[in-house]
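Treating backbone geometry as a discrete language has practical consequences that deserve illustration. The amino acid sequence and the backbone structure tokens for this protein are reproduced below.
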Amino acid sequence: MHKRITWLVCGNFNGYLDDGGTNSTLTLLRELQKRGASCSVQVFLGLGSVASLTAYVARVRDFAHSGRIIIKKGYVSFYVKNILIEARIVKENIFKLYHTRDEKALRALTLHIKAILRMTRPDIIITSQEDIFSLRAADESGIPCCHIFSSACFKFLDTFNIYKNEFRACLAKTLVVTCSCFLKRDIRNIWNKRAILLPALIDRISCVAKKRNPRYITFVNCHPHKGAVIFWNIARKLPHKRFLVIDNHGFFPLKSPLKNVTVLRRQSDMKKVYRLTKILLFPSLVEESYGMVLVEAMANGIPVIANRIEGIKNTLQKAGFLVDINQRDKDKKDYFYNSLYHMKTYQQYVALITMLDSDSAVYNKASKKALQEAERIMSRQRQALEGFADLIAKR
């Protein structure tokens, strides 16, 4: 496959390099690169100052491989997973544009992206999620495009209502890819568009620990929407168990309010986390498209306890433990913060944790099932990847 493939990303400097969807897309690019494609990522930052660019560099330094980061005026480049990332400053406030339509700024941003496309001359463009600006620029440039939906955000973000007509027009001419069956169904219902199913790609090298020393019950991405209120109640109910929290957003102080909880900030090497994890908790209170952390944990033989929600139950199948949640009060303003809504849920978690941690036969059986399911998922991913690579090669 001799194709130049560029992934366009419009956004501010928060995020993009360490969430599940981004990691999956970078892994996809690396796999296409192994098949002969030349892949890169063009990031457009709505920052407007060198100080912010410096902050962006500090933000990505832990994720940049080979340690070489080139910084020029309004520009930075580095490598992640052997993929070249080039980030540029633009004058437009992209974050504001996602929430408020401004035709003049929108046109200026589109022209800026198209200028970069004329310079880099890709054969195929990849766009993702709510990024209508990149999708629109690709459409106007006449370059074949593949749009990836890796989360269910299109059902509640303002962007999809503000730019509803543009999305419908651009997606009609675009190859649409998604990672889960329920997202595929929703895309068909909302845009009358048939999407290709490509499960989120797991990079075994970056997530599977060679030697494990399981000590902690772990919760990754501690956020109110991800079920932080449930986790903290579990930890209080089990004061003699050791818990590990990965707080990606800095919601909680590094000095935990509970003695049995260790809090760490965002981790660039998740193998270190899985090496120490005995049980993984996934108490999310919102729809999840896939839950990459679940598959990564299972690939390490770690039993998973998760909420019974869309996406997650399809990923876990029969390999993990599913817990019922209170859906009746989900529209209440304090649903994500008030533990009274979730008492039955965290009580189920406490019972399952106690069972797994006290019965080695039950734990070993759950660990074996997790490994088997992870292998099945990764096998399905490889098959889907081959089909996707063939489609890209023909475009």
Notes: The mean pLDDT is 87.
